[in-house]
Amino acid sequence: MSSYFVEENSVETVNARMGRNIDPRLVQMMSALVRHLHAFAKETQMTQAEWETGIDFLTRTGKICTSERQEFILLSDALGFSMLIDAINNRRPVGATESTVLGPFYVEGAPVRAMGDTISLDCKGESCLFEGRVLDLDGRPIEGARLDVWSDNADGFYDVQQPDTQPKWNNRGIFVTGSDGRYSFVGIKPVSYPLPDDGPVGQMLARLGRHPYRPAHMHYLVTAEGFQRLVTHTFVGDDFYIDSDAVFGVKETLVATFERLANAPTLWRSPFNFVLAPMVHYRLLDPGRGRDQPFVDIFRDKDGFR
Ligand code: BEZ
Ligand code: FE
Predict the structure, then answer these.
(1) 286 Cα distance to chain centroid
(2) 157 lines ligand 1 (CB under 6 A)
(3) Ligand 1 pocket check for 103: Cβ under 6 Å
């Protein structure tokens, strides 16, 4: 085969150019990327002008990124790619709470609050008691589980989007369960809000006849010793956008009850139990380790092997 580039052999020609002793995973990833990228151009018979439009789109996507704004992740979210990566990496046993996207508004270091405390500091919105238990797959309570929670405010903005108008850590907090595995906190019934849509991703959604909204949700990052990290939300089921989440994050099992209360300290109550899957322990034979310690212990968490 000639090593010059011709349309028919485009994939083989490019992939044959890789050197020797390259990381096998990199070889697998890059050759698949080239194969799919070339197939995309061939299937669509991409024109030069369309290629230029794509390059311009990616350039604008890169240029709008800052330390606060990650337009490439937003693009991945809007294309359903983030949810696909999440699904591939979070196949959990039946009964475990399902995961969904983390989103760009998670901030590490929220204050640890006393059980039952309020996270809503701006006194806006309809108050809601969130409560339930953190359990293992056998229904036993998990002690010491850490629930890092965050939501938008009643105007549909996270505190980090409005640092000059919202109190710091508004609608955020960390709660640690006791021996009964129970958690409770007072927030607001969340409201739906649009993704940041003033950039290339917003323009793409508009061109595709898609709205940029996410249905109302409360975010949770639940961690506990010996269990897989759970990144998830609970959703408000009667939200207008529940069936058309701009990032495809809704799962049926994550739609929570929101019951309206009368004569109670809060207007709403939303009960939800979280069920954590155990950390999976692999013991692999590692020939490089010698006779004394031939095995390597690996714990599978949400982030892959570690
Ligand atoms: C969020 O729920 O905070 C979110 C997720 C993905 C993209 C934008 C926002
Ligand atoms: Fe959100």
Answers:
(1) 33
(2) no
(3) yes
The 10s digit of each residue's pLDDT in 282-298 is 677 776 677 777 676 66
Asked whether 247 lines ligand 1 (CB < 6 A), one says yes
Residue of the nearest CA to atom 5 in ligand 1? 103
The two beta strands, 274-275 and 127-135, are parallel
Give, as one character, the DSSP assignment of residue 110: P
- For 77-109, the pLDDT digits (tens) are 999 999 999 999 999 999 999 999 999 999 999
- Number of other CB atoms surrounding residue 223 within 10 Å: 19
Protein residue with least CA distance to atom 2, ligand 1: 103
Which of 99, 214, 219, 239 is the pocket-test mutation for ligand 1 (most atoms within 8 Å of CB)? Answer: 214
Residue closest via CA to ligand 1's atom 7 equals 103
Q: For residue 157, what are the β-bridge partners?
A: none
Q: How far apart are CA 141 and CA 135, in angstroms?
A: 4
For the segment 52-84, what is each residue's pLDDT rounded down to a tens digit? Answer: 999 999 999 999 999 889 999 999 999 999 999
> Residue 145: which of 224, 232, 227 has the closest Cα?
224
Supply 306's token pair.
Answer: 């570690």
